[in-house]
Design a protein that fits this description.
By secondary structure, the protein is α/β, with parallel strands linked by helices. Helix content is 33%, strand content 25%. Strands 6, 7, 8, 9, 10, 11, 12 and 13 form an 8-stranded parallel sheet that branches.
Length: 241
Amino acid sequence: MLPRFFCPDLPSPGADFVLPAAIAHHLDRVLRLRPGTELLLFDGSGRELTATLKQTGKAASVSLDSVAEVSRETPLDIALVQALATADKMDWVVQKAVELGVRTVYPVAAERSVLRLEGERAARRVEHWQQVAVSAAEQSGRNTITRIEPIRPLAQWLSEFAKVRRSWILDPEAGTPLSEQRAPEGPVALLIGPEGGWAERELAAARSAACLPLALGPRVLRTETAGLAAVAAMQALWGDF
C-alpha cells in the first residue's frame, strides 16, 4: 500500500504542491523516502490523488499526477456518542471507530466519567482526537475525515441531537439485542457509557429523549469495547462487512 496523507486544499493534477511541514518531516525523518517515490494524497472531499515526491526536507514537494473519486465509506451513517473515558481509551476508541467507518464521534461528559475536561484542556484534547482520526483515515484508506465534535454534557447532546438521529443507548440490563432491531433507514447514534456505566437518571433522560435501550449479549463490555463491538455488528448486519 502506498503511503497516504491527508492534505486539505489540494490543487488539480498537473500542478506541483508543497507538502505541509508535519508531513514533510514524517516523509524525511520517519519514512526516509527519496525523490521519485509515489504517494497518495486525499483532501477529505472524496478525491484521492496520486503524486510523485520531487523534493524532500523542510520544503518537500510533490507533482500531482492523477485524481480519482474513490469512496470507501459504509452505507451506514453512524455517530458514536462516547462518554469520556481515560485518555488512552479515548484515543483507542477514536482510532478504531474511524477504521470501522463511523462518520462522527461525540465525546460526552457523563456523571461517572473518570476523565474531566473543561475549557482549554477540553479544546486541546478534542484537537488531539481529531488528529488521531486523521491518522486513522490515512492508514485505513478512507478519503473522508471522521469529525470529532466538541465535548458536551450528555443532557445537551440529548436535547440537540436525539430527535435528529435514531438513537440507541447501551443498557445491558434492559436493552433489546441488536439482532432484533430493524435496520436504520437514516442516521443512527450509539450512546456508550463510561467506565462506571450510565447513572439511572441518565438512562431515564435518554428514554425520555426517545433513545432505545440496546444490549450486546449477556456479558458486560468495557467502555472501550462496547461501541466498537456494536459498530462492527451493525456493519455485519446492515453495512459493508
